[in-house]
Amino acid sequence: MRPMIPAYNRQGDLLASWNPHPGGVAGRPTFIVTHGGHGLVPTNFATALWLREEFAANVLVLDSYWSRGREENWATGTRYGVNMRVLDVIAAARWLRDSAGVDPRKSFLLGDSQGGWTVLRSFTTEPFFQRELSGLLRAGIALYPNCRVDGTTHYPRLGPYAGPVLIFTGGRDSATPVADCAPATLTAAADWIHFPDATHGWDVANRGAHTPAVDGECGRAMNVYNRFAVCRSDAATAAMRARIRSFVQELVAR
Amino acid sequence: MHTTVATLCQHAREFQEFSRLTGRLSRLALRGLCALGGLGLLAGCSADFTAADTAYFQPPITTTSAPARPLRES
Q: Which domains are present in chain A?
């Protein structure tokens, strides 16, 4: 990780881990991995490793919180929420196109939890964001996203979407319950997959990014806002990855 | 939207005139309807994100905003 992505306002550089494929950047899918409400965690790097191996892809792991010296939670309702995260996505997507030489038609945004919220907002037909992101991203993938919408600038509109979006939710998710999602937020996606038995963070890398996770093990989030359960599910993770595989392959082949 | 509001107001005035004739219960009903309509209009009129919002939503970056200092003097 190093400060390398010029921020949207060009005042400072966001921390990121840029991993161009050893065989060259050109002609490959590229993924921006954007984190949840606890900042970058081993799960994000495990996902990045899987994407790199599965798609022979370039992967950028993007940070929005440690870059600003803090961690955040989607429940706080501050300026560090989803609109800030989208501006960071714009900055990263521009850098990938202009400085790293990736093909925007094969560029995907993937985020979990608050990162999933960021995916939904990035693709929402908000005129400003769509103008800034025009031609920079092919599609988005949101894992167990926060869906709260109350019409304020801190919890703004989610959907309809300007591009293909794939959404995954869990029926036992007590952190970002699917019940918080307006039906249109989910049905406007290209596809919405619901795992009835999954908690928040079913793909948690509970032994680190480089070691196989322990299936079925449960823990609790360590923060003052919501000490929700996180249970690893190999079955949900495998099913999710299979759907991501077909989704990406279909779009890249077009 | 403005046309809709004007039409709603016209109906409200007509209803108010009617309510003078029909008493207090109708006036209460009118107020309730207006309150609900106002809430609905507020919810439907939430502002889009604009360039002016980018300043608020770009909190300072600390990783590179401060000059780097060596860990020890040499």
A: 2-253 (3.40.50.1820)
